[in-house]
Amino acid sequence: MEITATEIAFLALLMFIGLLVYLKVPQQIAGALDQKSQAIAHELHEARRLREEAEKLHAEYEAKRAAAESEAKAIVAAAKEQAATVAEETRQSMMAAMARREEQAEDRIASAGAKAADEVRAAAAEAAIAAAERMIRERMNDDAQAALVRDGVGEMARKFG
Domains of the chain: which residue ranges? Predict the structure, then answer.
């Protein structure tokens, strides 16, 4: 029986595989693959953890952003309300000031009217006195003066005498 080259190659292959098995190369390859798969699994686990952490942070920041937006809206609403209140207070104070000024103007007008009426009365009284004085001078003669003096003296005598 002759051994052919194919058979020698086959025997060499079997010996090579046997040597590999004896040297525990398949176990080392399997161990390296297991280590690599464990490293990959660890990296995947770490990636999941980081992703969850990032999602958590994202949710926190979204909540903070929403809270900041609502706070900003509340601040704007409060500012608008305060501005409306200030505007209303200003309008009311201006209306009160206008009413005071109108009242002051009416008082001044009334005062000026009363002063003018007093001046007219005073002028009328002066005119009446002047007219009465003129009339008395025109009607007063020596006989009338003597009669007035006699009446005055008689009345004084009655009161003091």
Answer: 16-139
